[in-house]
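Worked problem 6 (solution included).
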Amino acid sequence: MLRKSVETRDWLGTVEPRNVRAVMKRVVEDITAIDVQVGQLFEEGVRRAQSSDSSRRAFSVYSSSRAPGRYAPSYTPSAPMDTHLLSNIQKLFSERIDIFSPVEFNKVSVLTGIIKISLKTLLECVRLRTLGRFGLQQVQVDGHYLQLYLWRFAADERVVQGLLDEVAASAAHRCLDPVPMEHSVVELICERG
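Solution. The predicted structure is:
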């Protein structure tokens, strides 16, 4: 479902995002249904303690080391820095997410596995597309929507956030006109959706 939604969309000629795409709402609905079904078969399992702002964490097209002013105070978008190099350096120091890790026989582990495979699928599909400005902004909106709802099903919310950050960074790399949407606008669209 995620693969087809990315492959069939015209990401270069899309209009400015006004809503979360229906497929993202369906993903959340399906994960919620799976949560109920798996909960009938397995015990809960162990979750890592969530941060107090899990559902409000900013979803950005810049990974943490690429955020202006954070680790590279002299970084400006017009500076002749290689963002691919910065992204690769970030990957060296970030915790590796094992997508196909063993799944334990509990609800949290099963759902975490499903979420990791789903988000990795989304990431790989986005890497194969070329996006326009509004295509990038739609990925931002969709990613923020997924962040708002999927973190509560995973064993560790950082896994969800890490994969969504990779999706956003990949979309920004593949975008011809990378102008991210204001975070307040993204939040407003997701709250309406």
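Discussion: Residues 62-80 have pLDDT under 50 and may be disordered.
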